[in-house]
Specification:
Helix content is 7%, strand content 55%. The chain is mainly beta. It folds into 3 domains: 112 residues, Immunoglobulin-like (Sandwich), CATH 2.60.40.1120; 109 residues, Ferric Hydroxamate Uptake Protein, Chain A, domain 1 (Beta Complex), CATH 2.170.130; 529 residues, Beta Barrel (Maltoporin, Chain A). The strands form 9 sheets. It has a 22-stranded antiparallel barrel. A 5-stranded mixed β-sheet has the order 10-15-16-13-14. Strands 3-2-5-6 form a 4-stranded antiparallel β-sheet, with no helix packed on it.
Length: 775
């Protein structure tokens, strides 16, 4: 279940006690035993190292080598007894993990966490649909972004990194204005992230109303990302786009260490951050702070963000672990708006007229507190519980109005796991529930010179979401696994219009969606260690969000129906040439009914409608080459990766007014996208990353009369890592959009007045420095 991240920590830390004999009264009359116990304590204090993996599980058979060539080896509990006195540097190595140098002080105990070596796709471990297994063993379109992947671009956002995943488009319409499209899911997102469920440290980061504010998070709040593409309702509730799971701390790089990072770049970009961790026998405490300020490529596009985070783990005993997180984000950014073709030709960097006079911007403060417990009730029964409380203030002056929201929310997710045997084989049952509630006090005003004016309407919204889920994994044979899962989803919106100065019709409206069962069936088979096949069928269900039911100008669109569809998917995963080449190929067909699309009225207000059926067929492939393996050359690493996306998405039976749009390509989706990545590392610390991206042209309206041009984009990053007296340093710099092309990572769809275009930055550079102090 979910990786059992904390329960794995319990077992590990329980094994790191000074010695297991704690009941001393039983041995008082045996002085010899007391002497032995005392000596054990002394040895631990003077020379014991504990070597763990990223899940804080012990690593057996790791070697520890000092400068003289003396070697020690970790036992089954991950412990290494080093009796050599003094302070000296050691190299820790393991066949399945990255090597690591640390400074050893014989008077102190030390915990070292090693990063998993994942030179090919077969070695990547993911949570998936509550599986927690190698990617090669799990059915479905799943991708993992590691901490190393996140560091191959500038540190201002995760946009470029996520865009290297086939089938996923992280759109940035302007600085800090994000959308996420997974297999075309952003068609109903004029702004923000919708139709995709996001989790952060085990709690839902997506509101029960269906909106997600990813721009509240800094890169310090994201250490790795896992993406499930397509419907994942059997475990994570409603949503046809998929699921994004974020984890905030990488213990392999931060345990018992403090890091400082700072960078500057073009267009007034500045970012600095500090992270620190204290890891002890019974607890872990992590603190983070980041600040970012960017003027932006376009006019009226400044962005400022302060983010603070505290994470706490307490390892109570072998069976139980408690955790807590606090996150606060203070975020402001200006909105330049879309340009028409004439404005784009005149000056790509200009803002939409009236954006600056009306102070089009977002001022957003967000706080969330999370608590959790993992409890290993027995060897076959584990529970994982997480609950949260959140509060946010949202202020959005725009050309058409002035919006203020105050929201309080809470929720929880309970996940239980039972191991059992069927037909003499081990199987697993994961089940539980997730519940969310939010109360939103929303007011819309007129906008006069960037200040709020007369109240137009005031609403009190109550959003309730709940679902029960069950996932059974049955081993039918040594190489075949059947997974059967389902969730029962419930959603209700109460919209109490307290004041209505537009239509003079206040009152309470309830939008209660019918309960929907979303099943999933998957069959996986391993033909050998190098070839695996998977087939799955999943039901997709995605109700309208509150911002689609309650639009900005005050209309309540109560007739909007949920999207429902069936996804068929075939996955091929494996490796060739002694694991030098690994591949992950997915072919899918998704038939979506009652799809939701956008339209814009003459005032520029975005409205939503059901547009019938959309047929989505596609092929997505990741292929990775390891050019060098165990090389004795100065060149220590040379890898390349190809990410290929082909999407054939089109409308079926879609009539807009008198126009039959059936057969038109799906708005906002490129038919083909190619990413080619190459990473080079030298033993002396130098490295280089080069990324090439091709995007096909993209239809920007349902009529397919306006397109964003295709583009070829090149990005580079160079850096140097070095160590000095226990300190680790990194200096880096890079160039985005090396050839200074005109392109966009996200445009406005179905925009009125041809204001489709949101141009991305031209050639820009950045430089940064990072320092790590090991405690």
């Amino acid at each position: 279940m979910g990786g059992h991240f904390l329960s794995d920590q319990i077992r590990t830390f329980a094994s790191t006690g000074l010695f297991r004999v704690m009941n001393l009264r039983r041995y008082r009359k045996y002085s010899l035993s007391l002497i032995v116990a005392f000596l054990c304590c002394t040895v631990y204090a003077q020379g014991q190292m504990l070597i763990l993996d990223q899940k804080l599980e012990p690593i057996e058979a790791a070697s520890v080598t000092d400068e003289s060539g003396t070697v020690w080896v970790s036992n089954g509990e991950g412990k290494v007894q080093i009796e050599k006195p003094g302070i000296f540097e050691v190299l820790i190595q393991h066949v399945s993990h990255q090597s690591k140098k640390v400074v050893w002080n014989s008077t102190k105990s030390l915990k070292v966490i090693l990063e998993k070596r994942t030179q090919n796709l077969d070695q990547v471990v993911v949570e998936g649909f509550t599986d927690n297994d190698k990617l090669s063993k799990i059915a479905g379109g799943i991708a993992k972004i590691s901490p190393k992947d996140l560091s191959r671009f500038d540190q201002y956002a995760v946009v470029s990194t996520v865009n290297t995943i086939p089938g996923v488009q992280f759109e940035q319409r302007a600085e800090a204005s994000y959308r996420v499209s997974i297999r075309g899911s952003s068609i109903r997102s004029p702004f923000g992230v919708r139709n995709v469920k996001v989790y952060w440290n085990g709690i839902p980061f997506t509101e029960p109303g269906g909106n997600t504010f990813l721009n509240l998070l800094d890169l310090t709040n994201i250490s790795d990302i896992e993406i499930i593409k397509g419907p994942a309702g059997s475990a994570y509730g409603a949503g046809n786009g998929g699921v994004i799971k974020l984890r905030s701390t990488d213990y392999a790089s931060l345990s018992n260490a403090t890091t400082f990072s700072s960078s500057i770049g073009s267009f007034g970009a500045f970012r600095s951050s500090v992270q620190t961790n204290l890891l002890k026998e019974k607890l872990s405490l992590t603190g983070k702070y980041a600040f970012q300020d960017v003027d932006g490529f376009r006019d009226h596009n400044e962005t400022k963000r302060h983010v603070g985070e505290i994470d706490f783990l307490y390892f109570a005993n072998e069976k139980k672990t408690y955790s807590a997180s606090l996150l606060y984000s203070d975020f402001f950014y200006e909105i330049p708006g879309g340009l028409n073709p004439t404005q784009l030709e005149e000056n790509r960097r200009q803002a939409r007229p009236r954006s600056e006079p009306f102070n089009a911007s977002i001022d957003h403060q967000f706080f969330v507190a999370r608590v959790g417990q993992e409890y290993e009730i027995s060897d076959r029964f584990i529970s994982d519980f997480n609950a949260y409380y959140s509060s946010r203030n949202f202020e959005n002056p725009f050309i058409l109005d002035y919006k203020r929201d105050i929201e309080d929310g809470f929720g929880f997710r309970l996940e239980l796991e039972n191991d059992f045997r069927v037909l003499g084989r081990n199987s697993q049952l994961t089940y539980g529930t997730e519940n969310q509630f939010a109360e939103v006090r929303a007011k819309n005003f007129g906008n006069v010179g960037g200040e709020s004016d007369t109240l137009r309407f005031s609403d009190l919204l109550e959003n309730r979401l709940s679902f029960w889920f069950l996932d059974a994994k049955l081993n039918l044979g040594q190489s075949t696994k059947l997974t059967v899962g389902a969730s029962l989803n419930r959603l209700k919106y109460n919209i109490n219009r307290l004041e209505d100065e537009i239509n003079n019709s206040p009152g309470l409206v309830e939008k209660n969606f019918e309960s929907v069962l979303s099943p999933r069936v998957a069959l996986s088979h391993s033909w050998n260690e190098q070839f695996n096949t998977h087939f799955s069928i999943s039901h997709g269900y995605s109700p309208p969000t509150t911002t689609e039911v309650r639009t900005n100008e005050g209309t309540l669109n109560l007739g909007l129906a949920p999207e429902i569809g069936i996804n068929y998917e075939l996955n091929l995963r494996g490796s060739l040439f002694q694991n030098r080449l690994s591949y992950d190929i997915a072919a899918f067909m998704f038939n979506l009914d009652e799809s939701i699309t956008t339209e814009t009225d003459p005032q520029g207000v975005v409205l939503f409608r059901n547009s019938g059926q959309i047929d989505q067929q596609g092929l997505e492939a990741s292929i990775q080459w390891v050019w060098l393996k165990n090389s004795s050359l100065n060149l220590s690493r040379l890898n390349s990766k190809l990410a290929y996306t082909y999407h054939d998405f089109e409308f079926k039976d879609f009539v807009d007014g008198g126009d039959d749009l059936s057969g038109n390509a799906l708005t906002g989706t490129a038919p083909m996208v190619i990413n080619l990545l190459t990473d080079i590392e030298f033993r002396n610390g130098f490295y280089a990353n080069v990324t090439y991206r091709f995007s096909d042209r993209i239809p920007l309206n349902d009529q397919n009369t306006v397109f964003a041009d295709e583009y070829h984009l090149v990005q580079t990053r160079l850096g140097y890592n070095f160590q000095n007296k226990g300190l680790e340093y990194e200096a880096f710099g890079g160039v985005n959009n090396v050839f200074d092309i005109d392109y966009s990572l996200g445009n406005d769809l179905n925009a009125f007045g041809q204001r489709y275009f949101q141009p991305s930055p031209g050639r820009n550079v950045y430089f940064g420095f990072k320092m790590k102090i090991n405690h």
